Amino acid sequence: MKIYRYILLSTLFAIPLFGSNEALVKKLMELRSEVELLHSEIENEKDDYRSTIKSLSMQKSDLEAQINRKETQLKELRQSVQKIKDEIEKHSSQNVDLKPIIFEALHNLKAHIESSIPFKRKERLKDLETINNQLSEDLITPQKALSKLWSSYEDSIRLTKENGIFKEVISLGDNSVLSEIAKIGMVMIFFRTPDERVGKLQKSGEQWVYVETEDEIQRTQILNLFDALQKQIRTGFFTLPNGLIDMKVK
């Protein structure tokens, strides 16, 4: 308020001494009005500043909580990796034949890929087949094969946490169509064709099939998901059609 008093006093001294009382009162009222207006503007700016600080503080707390969760997950993953490395070193020092262990792990991962959502299935199975053939023909050492196999396992784990839009050729009815697919981990997949047909990947018995939806509510839900992912919005609340329930095929 010191600056307001300074403005007020400076202006008062600028008024001629011979001015009328009426002019003086009028000038005082104008100055008081200006001071009150400035004070109101400052208070509004203070309120805006407090709101911004509060919002940023809440965002900071949320980010810190997310970082702590991620650090905990990373710590657990490192412990798991170290445990596996220790086990490998233990077997290697005992001159244990790693081939049977690797072939069994290859078989298990292949079965998992064949039963899970068919995302890049051909490429992933081809990688496993290459490892199997190279190890069978002694073109690579068991240690090298194990390293490659471990990368395939890591890739499968990564896919379970990855959300995004990809391009794939899908079977829609009797036709193969290059479409955009929205992958939600390894839980659900939705598609959008160039001619704006949309739908979801649906379990039918032991098979996965792409099914077009005609329901307008479900169409809107799927299109909203594609829009969000294209805008790099990968977290939040989304209502999506259920792609987990088996279809009853007559």
Characteristic key phrases:
250 residues, alpha+beta, five-stranded antiparallel beta sheet, 6 helices, 5 strands, elongated, disordered N terminus
Would you give an account of this structure?
With 250 residues, this protein is α+β, with helices and mostly antiparallel strands. Among the domains are: 87-161; 163-230, no CATH class. A five-stranded antiparallel β-sheet has the order 1-2-3-4-5. 62% of the residues lie in helices and 15% in strands. The chain is elongated, with a radius of gyration of 34 Å.
Mean pLDDT: 78
Order of helices and strands: HHHHHEEEEEH
Number of helices: 6
Strand content: 15-25%
Helix content: 55-70%
Task: Sum this structure up briefly.
By secondary structure, the protein is α+β, with helices and mostly antiparallel strands.
Topology diagram in text:
Layout: H1 2-14, H2 21-93, H3 99-115, H4 121-136, H5 142-161, E1 163-172, E2 175-184, E3 188-192, E4 198-204, E5 207-212, H6 216-230
